[in-house]
Specification:
The protein is an alpha+beta fold. The protein has two helices and three strands, in the order H-E-E-E-H.
């Protein structure tokens, strides 16, 4: 997770570089997953609402879900 947006990074790169990833407020792990508006730590199970992350980081655009849905519709040929 980065700025409450889920990103995919290989484990080697995650350990080798400072990627400014979000960390769990409970255990400090960066193995987070976002689903249905909640961010869950895969290490300790701590759950928080998405958007309750670091206030110093820019917010994720509100229309991002709509943009992703439109892109998938174009690619998959859905009307």
């Amino acid at each position: 997770m980065r700025s409450d947006a889920q990103v995919l990074i290989c484990p080697d790169c995650q350990r080798a570089h400072d990627l400014e990833l979000d960390a769990c407020s409970s255990c400090g792990s960066t193995t987070l997953v976002c689903r249905l508006g909640e961010v869950e730590c895969r290490s300790c199970g701590h759950v928080r609402s998405a958007g309750d992350g670091d206030p110093g980081r820019p917010p994720v655009p509100a229309d991002l879900a709509a943009e992703v849905e439109a892109a998938l519709s174009r690619v998959l040929g859905r009307s």
